[in-house]
Protein backbone atom coordinates (compact mmCIF):
# COMPACT_ATOMS: atom_id res chain seq x y z
CA UNK A 1 0.00 0.00 0.00
CA UNK A 2 2.87 2.35 0.77
CA UNK A 3 4.07 1.86 -2.82
CA UNK A 4 0.61 2.64 -4.19
CA UNK A 5 0.27 5.80 -2.08
CA UNK A 6 3.79 6.94 -2.99
CA UNK A 7 4.33 8.02 0.63
CA UNK A 8 7.66 7.67 2.38
CA UNK A 9 6.45 8.51 5.90
CA UNK A 10 3.51 7.67 8.12
CA UNK A 11 0.50 9.93 7.63
CA UNK A 12 -3.02 10.49 8.85
CA UNK A 13 -5.56 8.48 6.91
CA UNK A 14 -8.98 10.07 6.49
CA UNK A 15 -12.01 7.86 6.80
CA UNK A 16 -15.55 7.59 7.94
CA UNK A 17 -18.39 5.16 8.31
CA UNK A 18 -22.15 5.35 8.47
CA UNK A 19 -25.37 3.71 7.42
CA UNK A 20 -28.17 4.22 4.96
CA UNK A 21 -31.31 2.74 6.39
CA UNK A 22 -31.32 -0.25 8.67
CA UNK A 23 -29.21 -2.68 6.63
CA UNK A 24 -26.70 -0.80 4.47
CA UNK A 25 -23.40 0.28 5.97
CA UNK A 26 -20.62 2.22 4.28
CA UNK A 27 -16.98 2.90 5.04
CA UNK A 28 -14.76 5.36 3.18
CA UNK A 29 -11.00 5.17 3.67
CA UNK A 30 -8.77 7.76 2.00
CA UNK A 31 -5.10 6.95 2.60
CA UNK A 32 -4.19 10.03 0.51
CA UNK A 33 -6.10 12.74 -1.34
CA UNK A 34 -5.93 10.60 -4.48
CA UNK A 35 -6.23 7.05 -3.10
CA UNK A 36 -9.71 5.87 -2.09
CA UNK A 37 -11.17 2.66 -0.69
CA UNK A 38 -14.96 2.64 -0.43
CA UNK A 39 -16.79 -0.32 1.09
CA UNK A 40 -20.52 -1.00 1.18
CA UNK A 41 -22.01 -3.74 3.33
CA UNK A 42 -25.51 -5.00 2.58
CA UNK A 43 -27.28 -7.14 5.19
CA UNK A 44 -30.36 -9.24 4.45
CA UNK A 45 -32.13 -11.08 7.28
CA UNK A 46 -32.59 -14.78 6.62
CA UNK A 47 -34.42 -15.39 9.89
CA UNK A 48 -34.29 -13.89 13.37
CA UNK A 49 -30.82 -15.35 14.05
CA UNK A 50 -29.12 -15.37 10.63
CA UNK A 51 -28.14 -12.60 8.25
CA UNK A 52 -26.67 -12.76 4.76
CA UNK A 53 -23.90 -10.18 4.37
CA UNK A 54 -22.54 -8.95 1.03
CA UNK A 55 -19.45 -6.71 0.91
CA UNK A 56 -18.79 -4.49 -2.08
CA UNK A 57 -15.21 -3.21 -1.94
CA UNK A 58 -14.09 -0.53 -4.40
CA UNK A 59 -10.74 1.16 -4.83
CA UNK A 60 -9.10 3.47 -7.32
CA UNK A 61 -5.56 2.09 -6.97
CA UNK A 62 -3.88 -1.28 -7.45
CA UNK A 63 -6.65 -2.10 -9.91
CA UNK A 64 -4.94 -4.90 -11.82
CA UNK A 65 -6.57 -8.31 -11.46
CA UNK A 66 -3.51 -9.72 -9.68
CA UNK A 67 -4.00 -7.13 -6.90
CA UNK A 68 -7.52 -8.38 -6.13
CA UNK A 69 -6.32 -11.40 -4.14
CA UNK A 70 -4.48 -9.18 -1.66
CA UNK A 71 -7.62 -7.11 -0.96
CA UNK A 72 -9.88 -10.15 -0.79
CA UNK A 73 -7.53 -11.78 1.72
CA UNK A 74 -7.30 -8.60 3.83
CA UNK A 75 -11.11 -8.29 3.94
CA UNK A 76 -11.38 -11.97 4.90
CA UNK A 77 -8.92 -11.48 7.78
CA UNK A 78 -10.83 -8.43 9.07
CA UNK A 79 -14.18 -10.26 8.82
CA UNK A 80 -12.77 -13.26 10.70
CA UNK A 81 -11.35 -11.00 13.42
CA UNK A 82 -14.76 -9.37 13.83
CA UNK A 83 -16.45 -12.78 13.90
CA UNK A 84 -14.04 -14.10 16.54
CA UNK A 85 -14.79 -11.15 18.82
CA UNK A 86 -18.55 -11.16 18.24
CA UNK A 87 -19.03 -14.91 18.74
CA UNK A 88 -18.16 -14.47 22.42
CA UNK A 89 -20.39 -11.42 23.00
CA UNK A 90 -23.47 -11.95 25.17
CA UNK A 91 -26.29 -11.31 24.93
CA UNK A 92 -26.43 -12.39 21.29
CA UNK A 93 -29.42 -10.17 20.56
CA UNK A 94 -29.00 -6.46 21.21
CA UNK A 95 -31.10 -5.46 24.23
CA UNK A 96 -34.10 -3.17 23.57
CA UNK A 97 -32.48 -0.40 25.64
CA UNK A 98 -28.90 0.47 26.53
CA UNK A 99 -29.58 0.98 30.24
CA UNK A 100 -27.29 -1.93 31.12
CA UNK A 101 -24.49 -1.01 28.71
CA UNK A 102 -21.53 1.29 29.16
CA UNK A 103 -20.96 3.50 26.12
CA UNK A 104 -17.82 5.54 25.64
CA UNK A 105 -17.27 8.47 23.26
CA UNK A 106 -16.23 6.10 20.47
CA UNK A 107 -19.63 4.37 20.71
CA UNK A 108 -21.45 7.52 19.55
CA UNK A 109 -22.11 6.07 16.08
CA UNK A 110 -23.59 2.91 17.62
CA UNK A 111 -25.79 4.98 19.94
CA UNK A 112 -27.05 7.09 17.00
CA UNK A 113 -27.75 3.96 14.97
CA UNK A 114 -29.72 2.46 17.87
CA UNK A 115 -31.71 5.72 18.13
CA UNK A 116 -32.53 5.38 14.43
CA UNK A 117 -33.62 1.76 14.96
CA UNK A 118 -36.02 2.91 17.69
CA UNK A 119 -37.35 5.62 15.36
CA UNK A 120 -37.89 3.12 12.53
CA UNK A 121 -39.52 0.67 14.93
CA UNK A 122 -41.93 3.36 16.12
CA UNK A 123 -42.97 3.78 12.48
CA UNK A 124 -43.82 0.08 12.31
CA UNK A 125 -40.79 -1.05 10.34
CA UNK A 126 -39.77 -3.99 12.56
CA UNK A 127 -41.24 -7.48 12.29
CA UNK A 128 -42.90 -8.75 15.45
CA UNK A 129 -40.90 -11.98 15.54
CA UNK A 130 -42.63 -13.21 18.71
CA UNK A 131 -46.07 -13.09 17.08
CA UNK A 132 -44.76 -14.61 13.85
CA UNK A 133 -43.12 -17.50 15.74
CA UNK A 134 -46.31 -18.18 17.73
CA UNK A 135 -48.48 -18.26 14.60
CA UNK A 136 -46.14 -19.45 11.83
CA UNK A 137 -47.56 -22.99 11.70
CA UNK A 138 -51.09 -21.68 11.08
CA UNK A 139 -50.65 -18.40 9.21
CA UNK A 140 -48.97 -17.28 6.01
CA UNK A 141 -47.72 -13.71 5.93
CA UNK A 142 -46.73 -11.27 3.22
CA UNK A 143 -44.34 -8.36 3.48
CA UNK A 144 -46.60 -5.30 3.48
CA UNK A 145 -46.51 -2.96 0.51
CA UNK A 146 -47.68 0.67 0.36
CA UNK A 147 -50.83 -0.35 -1.53
CA UNK A 148 -52.13 -2.01 1.67
CA UNK A 149 -52.76 1.49 3.04
CA UNK A 150 -55.49 2.03 0.43
CA UNK A 151 -57.00 -1.42 -0.09
CA UNK A 152 -57.96 -3.97 2.54
CA UNK A 153 -58.81 -6.83 0.11
CA UNK A 154 -55.75 -8.98 0.62
CA UNK A 155 -55.89 -12.78 0.84
CA UNK A 156 -52.69 -13.01 2.88
CA UNK A 157 -52.24 -11.01 6.05
CA UNK A 158 -49.37 -8.55 6.32
CA UNK A 159 -46.61 -9.74 8.59
CA UNK A 160 -47.11 -8.32 12.12
CA UNK A 161 -44.98 -5.26 12.79
CA UNK A 162 -43.89 -3.79 16.13
CA UNK A 163 -45.07 -0.21 16.48
CA UNK A 164 -47.62 -0.53 13.70
CA UNK A 165 -50.36 -1.67 16.10
CA UNK A 166 -50.04 1.42 18.27
CA UNK A 167 -50.00 3.71 15.23
CA UNK A 168 -53.10 2.08 13.75
CA UNK A 169 -54.93 2.21 17.10
CA UNK A 170 -54.33 5.95 17.49
CA UNK A 171 -55.28 6.58 13.84
CA UNK A 172 -58.58 4.74 14.35
CA UNK A 173 -59.47 6.78 17.44
List the helices and strands and how they pair.
Elements: H1 2-5, E1 14-20, E2 24-30, E3 37-47, E4 50-59, H2 65-86, H3 108-122, E5 126-127, H4 129-135, E6 141-142, E7 157-158, E8 161-162, H5 164-172
Parallel strand pairs: 6-7
Antiparallel strand pairs: 1-2, 2-3, 3-4, 5-8
Q: What is the average of the pLDDT values?
A: 87
- Biggest sheet strand order reads 1-2-3-4
Uncertain runs are: none
Instruction: State the order of secondary-structure elements, H for helix, E for strand.
Output: HEEEEHHEHEEEH
Give your account of this protein's structure.
The strands form 3 sheets. The protein has a 4-stranded antiparallel β-sheet, with no helix packed on it. It has 2 domains: 2-86, no CATH class; 124-172, no CATH class. The protein is an alpha+beta fold. The chain has 5 helices and 8 strands; from the N terminus they run αββββααβαβββα.
Labels describing this entry:
single chain, 173 residues, alpha+beta, two-stranded antiparallel ribbon
